[in-house]
């Protein structure tokens, strides 16, 4: 498969040629992805700008109907789409079907319903003065689309992540230029095909890809782009923010995480271990919301380490297409080396490897064994930097206040977790944690709850109705009552 770019409603040959997309489980080619030139990126942004006006004036009900058709088409084609996502990302079958393609369909379906785009503000009585006579002033707040949105998605979940940006942006009347991650862009092009078939007008959705950083830089710097929605590393997010700041472009940034899992001495250890253990299996740890930094109170510390080690040891690592595989590969050889280098740093800094730590004995694929590092300190590199792999660090603490302080002693603040049998205690601690979200006795998500981070974990909130706010500007209309 030689994939073409999607620009202005047409499938366009890439001026930069093609590159191979590799299956991280087999190291074989999945297909050829297009390498866009700077001129083609500019053309995509210009097409989005031209399409924005008519699309923004389209009735919300019409936009919703298109998103609903897109959701249905994704659902109908879910099996081949999941197979492609699995080949590109190395996800297990359940993850590819349920958490990648399934979530993408759900997100288009979620934004296929029309929500109020305006709301009345209570009238205000004004005294007579230099601005005029006394009177009553009415007001209305109206959500308006931002304009052209650059959607730069992550490699760990090409379907759900891109859909979480594109669907609410389109629902609000924005046009989009999507720049998928270079490792797995083919799924995003299938999404563009779905939207085209669902009736999205030419230019409203554009997709450009490439391995060169110039592709992303050209999208962000384009004068036709009004907003950048980015999911990825904090380092790249900083560079994007610098460019956006020069032109005062809107930003929505979902960046890195180093989630603290505070396990208190009255916690259900089995529940805590089951939740924390998802770091080893879910996307092979390549997820920013993972509870990778475990803070275990001294009374349960040994039990937590022992049970987490047992959990890591019994998870099958291997071909993600096998039904009993729990841990698939990481995305690339380069990323495997990065994860392994962190494990080595942990050893050198005094952490004890109690599970994993060695490369699995598999002939092909970019695999990392689920690894547990115990006896860690919060100033160790493995406790401070995002590893983005199946690696968990465990740190002991004594008093409750110490655990809270350790959790907050981080550059990141995306999602933290608290396990305690005393729910009131857990909620009290949750309110003291400097994170955009806190899971109490769960790693599950409420998909209407606002999602985003404190500190270097991001800027802004999306998901549910919060995404409609994120992809809109609020306009005030005032009149004499």
UniProtKB/TrEMBL annotation:
Q: Where is the Aldehyde dehydrogenase domain?
A: 11-477
User: From the UniProt record, which GO molecular function terms apply?
Assistant: oxidoreductase activity, acting on the aldehyde or oxo group of donors, NAD or NADP as acceptor
TM ranges are none
What keyword terms does UniProt attach to this protein?
A: Oxidoreductase
Cross-referenced Pfam families, in alphabetical order?
Aldedh
Q: Does the keyword Oxidoreductase apply?
A: yes
* Parts forming coiled coils: none
Q: Which family does it belong to?
A: Belongs to the aldehyde dehydrogenase family.
Question: What protein is this chain from?
Answer: Aldehyde dehydrogenase family protein
Source organism of the structure: Streptomyces cupreus
